């Protein structure tokens, strides 16, 4: 090791350990991170080795990064900018700020400025606990990336699963083969033979050619429509393929959360019913295209108290084609399990929006696979094949004679069909995505120049905290329709008159004014609960942060107090009728999944000892199987949940609301990124409002990007 490591903190193992402990006590790193580093130390000592303090430090930091969604640490990036890479001290102040009060403490970045890449490489390669992957070790170092072994294995399994599928021959590769001709006929029937570029048609063709494909697109670009057409085209090919003897493909549809599965369930049935099946080759029947969507956990067969799934390499799924919607939310752990459970021949199609936030847990698989999607990188071979099969010429800007194998399996939908050309939500989302929120756009938002977007306090640069929180609370009650252009009246979307935006009073009134009683049948209660849950979905406050007055914790308290002061709810704490709750962990016994939302009802279903009717509280959750039934669960049985007047943008992924209000705090922090703002805006179907603690935070946030360290793109790019 070279002489730059002259600080005792990196020459004495006990001192490094003590520093890590200090960081852990200040909640900069997790107990798990410290524990992992100590495990590495113990392992080395068992081998009679004295661990390098630098390896102890890097072990803790790698584990810390995994907790922040990274699959690994890229050492060069870490050394170039440790502050940004590690985000330490953390963006949200810990409850215990003893450390930050101590001026003598060292940040990881202070320590790492003294370290070179060569120091890291040499310390790591000397350590027994670190391997290059050729032997089992808790840390893996490969191409300058340091992994926890578990995460490295996930990435390897995903890369292998993708590469193997990309290499499989396809019956439609030869344009004059019968299968390719059938595909071409099916696509022309589904989309028309038009010569203008139809990205949906191109996406179907690309995905039909490969056993692994990704279709990415922003909201309303037709991902669902495209995949339904794709499945019809694939079944048409299967029906004509003598090798399959007319057997149709076994297709399954899945999404990472119950909410996302339910949303796809709602839209897919309609899209399937519109298919021109009678005109397609292959004699496809309506039942050949599935309309039921399940969660990935259910599909893979999750078992209580186990990370392992029932379906795996030894017990694969009975499936020929698997479609995963909202794939941006799938972390590397779950994605690796998907590849394990898929039979070797099975085709995997990932759908999602590459610009959204990545999964909460480690990995950004979809985002990484789509890194080059904007520019296409289709080879001349692919382009010629697409022209023959679809009759469409790919624009020159998307052609690249050096395109990689993975590029040929990624399709991007580029036209929004949901939002009209002048929709503020669409224009704003595009501007955020391009990190281009100019003054004209900000003025448009402030002055309600768009029909559907309003920046409620955008004219005040630094609004006062209390009055802003008060304004958010009032907005939460009514949705402030008057602030929108034309008071939110008279908008017509796709030929239908849209009601003005609403706030939480809408569902609370419904809950209060119902006429059901103890004689009412259970079905009537189910119907009411469905209506109330739907009404709750009409409005949602989204926050960037968890802690502090601008975070979900503070805002939930504030809003509950305000609703109570308005007599809209009977109390502001604990359980009460009207309390909306978000499930924050999977509960397999109750059949509830992380992200499920329920509303508390007071129901007359109990009796006192003397036989009188007694009101009791039950939380109504929509069923997870896509049917219109309700699960009524006693509050005492619910373990992991929080009130959900305000929700983090992270948790809102996979959901959509009629009206969302995004709350941005009064100062910039690393969590405020373009992806977060984009995800928040695109959760809104018809109305979007913005509240800021400081007007400049909006523009500053969209200048920041989420960059997650991982090696997937590099492994696949090297194929
Ligand atoms: N090629 C098309 N021509 C006309 N309308 C279309 C086309 N494709 C999709 N649409 C319409 O646009 C709307 C959005 O389509 P779809 O639900 O398929 O998009 P999506 O990308 O899955 O949306 P989401 O953002 O909800 O995931 C639907 O009303 C659909 O009928």
TrEMBL record:
List, alphabetically, the InterPro entries matched: Coronavir_polyprotein_1ab, P-loop_NTPase, RecD, RecD_N, RecD_N_sf, UvrD-like_helicase_C
Give the UvrD-like helicase C-terminal domain ranges: 644-689
Q: What class of enzyme is it?
A: isomerase
Q: Which reaction does it catalyse?
A: ATP + H2O = ADP + phosphate + H(+)
Q: Which Pfam families match?
A: AAA_19, RecD_N, UvrD_C_2
Q: Where does ATP bind?
A: 217-224
One GO cellular component term noted in the UniProt record for this chain: exodeoxyribonuclease V complex
Q: Where is the RecBCD enzyme subunit RecD N-terminal domain?
A: 25-147
Q: EC number(s) on record?
A: 5.6.2.3
Q: Which UniProt keywords apply?
A: ATP-binding, DNA damage, DNA repair, DNA-binding, Exonuclease, Helicase, Hydrolase, Isomerase, Nuclease, Nucleotide-binding
GO BP terms, alphabetized: double-strand break repair via homologous recombination
Molecular function in Gene Ontology:
5'-3' DNA helicase activity; ATP binding; DNA binding; exodeoxyribonuclease V activity; single-stranded DNA helicase activity
**Further information:** In the RecBCD complex, RecB has a slow 3'-5' helicase, an exonuclease activity and loads RecA onto ssDNA, RecD has a fast 5'-3' helicase activity, while RecC stimulates the ATPase and processivity of the RecB helicase and contributes to recognition of the Chi site.
What function is annotated for this protein? A helicase/nuclease that prepares dsDNA breaks (DSB) for recombinational DNA repair. Binds to DSBs and unwinds DNA via a highly rapid and processive ATP-dependent bidirectional helicase activity. Unwinds dsDNA until it encounters a Chi (crossover hotspot instigator) sequence from the 3' direction. Cuts ssDNA a few nucleotides 3' to the Chi site. The properties and activities of the enzyme are changed at Chi. The Chi-altered holoenzyme produces a long 3'-ssDNA overhang and facilitates RecA-binding to the ssDNA for homologous DNA recombination and repair.
Q: How does it assemble?
A: Heterotrimer of RecB, RecC and RecD. All subunits contribute to DNA-binding.
Record's family? Answer: Belongs to the RecD family.
Q: What is this protein called?
A: RecBCD enzyme subunit RecD
Taxonomic lineage is: Bacteria, Pseudomonadati, Pseudomonadota, Gammaproteobacteria, Pseudomonadales
Q: What gene makes this protein?
A: recD
């Amino acid at each position: 090791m070279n002489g730059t490591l002259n600080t005792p903190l990196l020459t004495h193992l006990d001192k490094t350990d003590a520093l890590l402990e200090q960081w852990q006590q200040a909640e900069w790193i997790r107990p798990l991170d410290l524990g992992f580093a100590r495990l590495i130390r113990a392992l080395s000592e068992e081998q009679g080795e004295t661990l390098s303090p630098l390896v102890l430090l890097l072990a803790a930091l790698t584990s810390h990064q995994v907790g922040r969604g990274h699959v690994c640490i890229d050492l060069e990036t870490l050394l170039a900018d440790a502050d940004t890479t590690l985000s330490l001290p953390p963006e949200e102040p810990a409850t215990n700020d003893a450390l930050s009060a101590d001026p003598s403490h060292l940040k990881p970045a202070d320590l790492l400025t003294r370290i070179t890449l060569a120091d890291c490489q040499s310390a790591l390669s000397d350590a027994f606990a670190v391997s290059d992957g050729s032997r089992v070790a808790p840390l893996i170092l490969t191409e300058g990336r340091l992994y926890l072994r578990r995460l490295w294995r996930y990435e390897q399994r995903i890369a292998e699963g993708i590469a193997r599928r990309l290499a499989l021959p396809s019956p439609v590769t030869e344009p004059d083969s019968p299968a390719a001709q059938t595909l071409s006929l099916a696509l022309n029937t589904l989309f028309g033979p038009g010569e203008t570029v139809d990205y949906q048609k191109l996406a179907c063709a690309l995905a039909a050619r490969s056993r692994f494909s990704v279709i990415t697109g922003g909201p309303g670009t037709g991902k669902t429509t495209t995949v339904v057409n794709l499945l019809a085209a694939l079944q048409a090919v299967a029906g004509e393929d003598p090798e399959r003897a007319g057997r149709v493909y076994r297709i399954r549809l899945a999404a990472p959360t119950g909410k996302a599965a339910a949303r796809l369930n709602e839209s897919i049935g309609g899209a399937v019913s519109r298919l021109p099946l009678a005109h397609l080759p292959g004699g496809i029947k309506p039942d050949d295209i599935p309309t039921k969507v399940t969660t990935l956990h259910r599909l893979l067969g999750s078992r209580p108290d186990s990370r392992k799934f029932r379906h795996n390499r030894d017990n694969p799924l009975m499936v020929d084609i698997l479609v995963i919607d909202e794939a941006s939310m799938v972390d590397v752990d779950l994605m690796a399990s998907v590849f394990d459970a898929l039979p070797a021949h099975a085709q995997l199609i990932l759908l999602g929006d590459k610009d959204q936030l990545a999964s909460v847990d480690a990995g950004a698989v979809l985002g990484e696979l789509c890194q080059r999607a904007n520019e296409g990188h289709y080879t001349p071979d692919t382009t010629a094949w697409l022209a023959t099969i679809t009759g469409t010429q790919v624009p020159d800007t998307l052609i690249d004679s050096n395109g990689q194998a993975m590029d040929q399996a990624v399709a991007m939908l580029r036209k929004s069909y949901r939002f009209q050309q002048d929709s503020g939500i669409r224009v704003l989302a595009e501007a955020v995505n391009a990190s281009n929120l100019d003054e004209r756009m900000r003025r448009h938002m402030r002055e309600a120049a768009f029909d559907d977007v309003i920046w409620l306090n955008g004219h005040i640069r630094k609004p006062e905290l209390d009055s802003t929180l008060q304004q958010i609370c009032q907005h939460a009650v009514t949705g402030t329709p008057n602030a929108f252009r034309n008071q939110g009246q008279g908008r017509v979307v796709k030929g239908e008159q849209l009601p003005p935006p609403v706030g939480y009073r809408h569902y609370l009134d419904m809950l209060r004014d119902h006429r059901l009683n103890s004689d009412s049948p259970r079905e009537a209660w189910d119907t009411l609960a469905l209506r109330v849950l739907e009404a709750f979905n009409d409005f949602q406050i989204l926050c960037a942060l968890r802690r502090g007055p601008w975070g979900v914790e503070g805002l939930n308290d504030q809003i509950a107090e305000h609703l109570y002061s308005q007599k809209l709810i009977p109390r502001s704490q604990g359980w009460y009728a009207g309390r909306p709750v978000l499930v924050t962990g999977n509960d397999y016994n109750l059949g509830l999944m992380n992200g499920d939302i329920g509303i508390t009802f007071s129901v007359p279903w109990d009796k006192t000892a003397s036989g009188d009717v007694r009101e009791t509280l039950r939380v109504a959750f929509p069923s997870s199987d896509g049917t219109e039934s309700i699960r009524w669960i006693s509050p005492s049985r619910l373990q992991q949940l929080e009130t959900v007047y305000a929700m983090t943008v992270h948790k809102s992924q996979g959901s959509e609301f009629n009206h969302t209000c995004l709350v941005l705090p009064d100062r910039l922090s690393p969590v405020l990124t373009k992806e977060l703002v984009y995800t928040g805006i695109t959760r809104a179907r018809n109305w979007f409002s913005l509240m800021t603690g400081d007007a400049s935070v909006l523009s500053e946030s969209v200048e920041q990007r989420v960059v997650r360290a991982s090696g997937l793109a590099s492994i696949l790019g090297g194929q």
